[in-house]
Amino acid sequence: MTKKNDLDFLLEPRRQSSIAIFLILLKSFRVILSQAWPIFIALIFNPTKSKDTYFALVIIGITAASAIRSIILYFKFYYYVKDDELIIEKGIFQKTKLNVPFDRIQTINFKENILHQFFNVVSLEIDTAGSKGNELSITALKKDKAIAIREFLLSQKKSIPPILFSAEELEEEIETPEEELLHLSSIDLIKIGVSQNHLKTAAIVFAFMFTSMDYIENITGWKLEDGIDSILGSSSNTLLIGLITIGPAFVIIAFLISLVRTVFRYHELRFIKTSIGFKVISGLFTRNEQSATIQKIQLIRWTTNPIKKIFSLFDISLRQAASTAIARKQSIYIPGCFEEQLSSVRATYFPEESQLSFEQHVIHPLVIYRRVLYFGLIPAGFFLLSKYLENSSDDYFWAISWVAIVLFISWVYQRNFKYFVSDEGIRISTSIIGKTETLLKWFKIQGIEIQQGIYQRRKELCNLVFYTAAGTVKIPYIELKKAKRMKNFILFKIENSEKPWM
Amino acid sequence: MIFQNSQINIAELPSIDEINFQKLDPAHVQVKYISSSIFFLIMLATILYLRTQPLIIDHPRLGNGLLIFWVSWAIFSFTLTKMGYNIEGYALREKDIVHIKGVINRQQTAIPFNRVQHCEIKAGPIQRFFKLKTLEIYTAGGNGSDLSIDGLRGDHAQVLKNYIIKTTGQSRYDEEE
After folding, report:
1. E strands along A60-161, which residues?
2. What tens digit of pLDDT does each residue of A438-473 get?
């Protein structure tokens, strides 16, 4: 308790270290630069067009405004401790008061870059597993103060038990050895590479080429579009010819990219079950290790596609609780595994699953018409309208076949969307080409929402949405009565659950 | 702890249909009107300025079109605000809070108190003039499940917040026993 006096400074509102002004300023510059870099590059590479004085004025203006903003932000920022909460007050126009009860604090991180080190300050970030990334962050604090705050918060947290594991569980961990569930061989790896979603990769490659084309043209002055046009010829059927010639090329490139990527990333992948959760180690050049404790896993999702089915492969992701910004890094992803590993994961996350009875439900067929309207008829209508305005009205074929495709896909979607409800959780299965299944236990849910558009209100239908700490799960077009009943039941289960959700 | 697992009859579960939603403070509509008035006035000024530019003087139809667009958007927005006020509401229950909103797409969100991460009270400049506050309730479920209840009278927001924080604490101690 000798530290008590050192911590008195926390009891009254305090400002951060004055270095913060400078750091806030730098941060706003970085944001501006990251948003506007194409402009800067264009100006640097293309000096003839730039209006130098105008440009300089804008830069000076932005600098001055940012500087004033940083100073005011600094003077309007206070932190202090009251009762068992850490409180931050901040804001210029929109005043904000943030309270974080000590026991909601998940992690306390120090961040130091070179500048921080130079001024002997650190940035304190406190994550509460909420939605806004690091909910609380103090840009600059003197190092000794930051350490004092961290120690104080951690000591407060410990006095309120169940966030970390208790001593007995830790001992158990030492006793039970790790069990290797899966070790991918080179052949498995090639199978996985072959069965990746190549269309998706192709789309990304295509999108990247397309968006960067403008920049490249601007900066270098090359005429890429003309080049492409001259290759394709600018006939009225450019789109069709383009798809036929470029499409397969993109798919082949994408195939190679995903094959190589898979081999590099998942080389020697080992999927291990520890006594408190799971661990995945993989990679050729950089070995990545990801781990998830059972308690932190919020939901699991596995998918398969026609090629994967031939090899009887699944990919699994174990979604862990995390703020949205780091959620993707926090989920364990296994690109390929077999039925055996899948059932082991399911049994660990949801031990009761095999004993409970699940009731099968389907979604309402009206979802087909809606999807056809939104994705089929309306786009086709716009397409025809634009063609009509161009006076070339021989494009009905494209519009009609588009609508037909959407109709077929929507029909498959509705037919294959099934959800299985039990007392403890839900399994949702969707499939169009590939099949995705999601397993979610009720007590992992953070909030429930019933959504209704005008059309759904008329038809007594709604979407039921479950928010979890690892993403959102949605059941579209279910009967309002059924949704309400499920909602009441799930709320009841959550509110009476004594298990911590993480 | 005694293990309890009594059978539940679904019909007896507390239902959301039976709750009466509490309306927001009537001054909330005024706050919204004022802030959208400011927005639309700025937009009107921009449109009027644009009308003095040669491009629009050459194409009078374009200028009129902009004005018509402005008028219809403003009417639409003000009507939506009024209608939205009649719909929006919240209900505080023993173990959760339910919030309803939306004129076109309606959303009814329920947050159990034992899933609340933290609460925030906010107030913009116009809200401060009418002594109104916004209560924001954060969960770990991402943006969608975070509730933001506008238009609460100052003391009311504080009372709500205290109640929620107290209850979240309560349920935590329940868990430990």
Report:
1. 78-82, 85-90, 95-101, 107-111, 121-127, 136-142
2. 999 999 999 999 999 999 999 999 999 999 988 899
